[in-house]
Backbone:
């Protein structure tokens, strides 16, 4: 008989009864879709299903269609799922992401997007290890952080705070958009600090976890223990502080924790996706404290930095051969996020291993179709005409003129070619924007430039440069 407040649902052909787990799961899924975006959610999290729940141990299984997806979700959303379930339904104490019994298994050579993973404990060390100590990923070190103009200040400040005997700033506030390297620097700071100060106490957590643990401490009347653990740290690392916006009691505790750490001369590093002055819903006194230290932004990576990152990451993918044309293509076309660029690299490597296909530009375009569409900046024909005219030092008006002199006709053909390559406009549309020319003229221009690129290295270099400038 169906209990009061319970709703019947269909599960693989049989009727079952909805439980508090179902209700919590629906809420968590909705929140994940909102926070992660529809594209990420639909691609990776939507297929997830509730698995077994062990009431005695409090362990809940989340089932994915394949081991590959289970590994990816564990790496990227394991902590978030754990915190979401603990917050929504305290009877769930641990969450395990598993593959369906009939799901495909990945190649043993498969390398997933880099995500923090604990290193294996040395013999006899597991019994002595502090369970609250952070598990820093050995790959996330200063030596593996690729530095460029976009992140140079942040990287230098992070190194200084981690290793200098004395620093002239505290706290260090790192901010930048998603996937620019904030988490990498946090792990690098933690590891370098421990190497320089053996035996030091380091606490690392997200602001979301800070909130959940604080609420749990309140519920269990253990606020003294919670405060002592954080405030006695020699180095406190807090990731994504924007998540405590609007949480007044959590902000109160966070402010006093900050004060205690700074006043005691201990070190504090905080990250956010925005600068302090742009954080809405955060108490002014917290923002003032954050601004006292050094505020370092991590800007979007430029083409040169993205190129260096791809090359560095390839060194960590043994057995993956990627020609220069593909490396340049990736660095040019994926510009939204370094994390997305690294993920694209790993997806290419995985698909190449599973299919045995050669890695070339058409293969990459096929594998990364959705990613490339999301990264594509809308380039107008007007932009192309302006850029090409400046590059070849002719007047922009010549793009639509009737002149056929070679010094004008060739740049016009290049502009038509780029318009076909970089915009979704049809051939007749392109022709109209070049002085009302016929679509057959555009076809001729495209074929002519394709032929010339293969024979003329200088023209090929010009077009590569123009493409980078337009897409950059």
Residues:
């Amino acid at each position: 008989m169906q209990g009061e407040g319970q709703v019947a649902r269909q599960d693989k052909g049989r009727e079952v009864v909805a439980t508090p787990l179902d209700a919590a799961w629906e809420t968590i899924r909705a929140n994940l879709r909102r926070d992660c975006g529809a594209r990420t959610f639909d691609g990776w999290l939507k297929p997830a299903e509730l698995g077994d729940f062990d009431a005695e141990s409090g362990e809940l299984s989340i089932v994915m269609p394949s081991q590959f997806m289970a590994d990816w979700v564990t790496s990227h959303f394991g902590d978030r799922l754990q915190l979401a379930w603990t917050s929504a339904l305290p009877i769930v104490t641990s969450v395990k992401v598993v593959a369906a019994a009939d799901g495909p298994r990945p190649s043993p050579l498969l390398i997933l997007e880099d995500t923090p993973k604990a290193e294996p404990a040395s013999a006899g060390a597991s019994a002595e290890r502090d369970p609250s100590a952070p598990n820093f990923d050995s790959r996330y070190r200063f030596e593996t952080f690729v530095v460029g103009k976009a992140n140079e200040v942040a990287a230098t400040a992070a190194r200084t705070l981690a290793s200098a005997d004395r620093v002239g700033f505290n706290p260090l506030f790192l901010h930048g958009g998603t996937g620019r390297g904030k988490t990498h620097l946090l792990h690098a700071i933690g590891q370098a600090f421990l190497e320089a100060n053996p035996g030091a106490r380091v606490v690392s957590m997200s602001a979301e976890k800070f909130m959940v643990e604080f609420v749990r401490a309140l519920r269990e009347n253990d606020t003294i223990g919670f405060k002592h653990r954080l405030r006695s740290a020699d180095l406190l690392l807090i990731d994504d502080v924007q998540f405590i916006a609007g949480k007044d009691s959590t902000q109160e505790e966070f402010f006093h924790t900050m004060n205690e750490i700074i006043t005691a001369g201990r070190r504090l590093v905080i990250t956010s996706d925005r600068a302090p002055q742009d954080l809405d819903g955060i108490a002014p006194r917290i923002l003032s404290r954050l601004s006292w230290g050094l505020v370092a932004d991590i800007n979007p990576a430029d083409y040169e930095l993205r190129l260096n990152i791809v090359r560095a990451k390839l060194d960590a993918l043994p057995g993956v051969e990627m020609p220069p044309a593909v490396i340049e293509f990736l660095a040019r076309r994926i510009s939204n996020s370094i994390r997305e660029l690294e993920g694209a690299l790993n997806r290419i490597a995985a698909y190449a291993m599973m299919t045995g296909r050669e890695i070339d530009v058409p293969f990459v375009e096929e594998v990364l179709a959705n990613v490339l569409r999301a990264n594509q900046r809308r380039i107008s024909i007007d932009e192309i005409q302006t850029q090409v005219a400046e590059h070849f030092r002719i007047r922009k008006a010549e793009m639509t003129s009737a002149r056929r002199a070679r010094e004008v006709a060739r740049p016009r053909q290049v502009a038509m070619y780029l318009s076909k390559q970089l915009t979704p406009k049809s051939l007749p549309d392109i022709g109209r924007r070049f002085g009302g020319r016929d679509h057959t003229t555009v076809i001729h221009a495209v074929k002519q430039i394709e032929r010339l690129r293969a024979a003329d290295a200088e023209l090929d270099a010009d077009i590569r440069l123009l493409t980078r400038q337009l897409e950059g």
User: Anything to note?
Assistant: Residues 1-17, 103-129 have pLDDT under 50 and may be disordered.
